Amino acid sequence: MKSTIGWKTSVIGITAAALVVTSFVAAQSKNEVSAASKQAKNVILFVGDGMGTAQRDAIRLATVGEKGQLAMDAMPYVGLIHTGSTVPVTDSAASATAYASGVKTYNGAIGMDANKKSVKTIFEYVKAMGKSTGLVTTSQITDATPAAFASHVEDRAKQSDIALQYLTKTKVDVLLGGGEDFWFPAGQAGAFKDEPVEDPSEKSKGTQGNLVDKAKSLGYTYVKTKADMQKAKGGKLLGLFANEEMFQQRPEGEGDLYNPIVPLPDMTKKALDTLSTNKKGFFLMVEEEATDEMAHNNNAKLTIKAGQELDKSVQIAKNFAKSHPDTLVLVLADHETGGFSIEEVDANDESGDAISKEDGPFQIANSKQNFVVDWTTSGHTAVDVPVTVMGTGAELFSGVYENTGIFTRLAQAMGVKLPK
Q: What are the backbone dihedrals phi and psi of residue 329, each rounded to the nearest 5 degrees, phi first?
């Protein structure tokens, strides 16, 4: 008989979360009134791509054990987000557009509503307030999640168009991540050679000319290594650290790697140091992409490893917030990936063969116990995802609501005046 420890743990966790959320819902109207008189000068929004509740639990168990707390969980407010787009199962583009602009749209849309009309992003609103903006990711810097905060295209695949908009339209101050291939035209390799051994399909494919030269002409400091990034001065920074993603994802055991040449915590720290020189404040979005990509390949080991790097980055942001109390910090996901579940180590495995079979066992930190991870899909799911929040305006984010509610709450927390 299959052990029930997995679903018992899930039920206990869901029940506890429901009780917490219910208590917050009861106090919501009072919270909104009190928060209305406050204003966040800075916002740091973390997106663990594909990171649902179960992934967060696995990261916690493997890192700090049953009684420990991750930095991303040790926050005073929690909410639950419905993740659907115009269809029940969203992609990252539509989800990020909901977060950044407050509209439901079709999968693949970047900064566009369902009628393919551009919608103003939170970055554009705060830029008008004189604040700085930054995007950090282990994916291409022009991939769906960062793109939705600072560009408008009908199709997320138009990554060179997105890059050009960053430079000339939304004028994002800090851009750190992968995706060099979309900044150089075909046949013109950048710092990372075309067709590398680890993935011969990666090569320069830009459609808007040499955008690195364009960035330099617009006053950006361009960096290609961790050392150069750390030495960089000035308020405008472009760092491209890989051909495409800053890791390699393939079917588990066939060469999948997570070892970014510039770790996410280091990029986060540099972005904060750079953006915080603006006395009017900033909005920084930080994404860990590998929590999604590794889950697509049902690789629990590297999903957890990427989540641990995300949590280190969150701790850096929390340290910043301690010395800058007018800062709002959020950790959420765009959607869940993989139908991820945590189960007891057991000889039976109903999930099948190939990549969907159970992963593990993984040791529970500070104990002699183990757990395994099981999967139901290699795609996205429609389950709710948690958001944990601390800082100025954090109380606004409690409750259960649509993903579009993140945008309206961010606007309220920052004092953004939205059109009626």
A: -125, 130
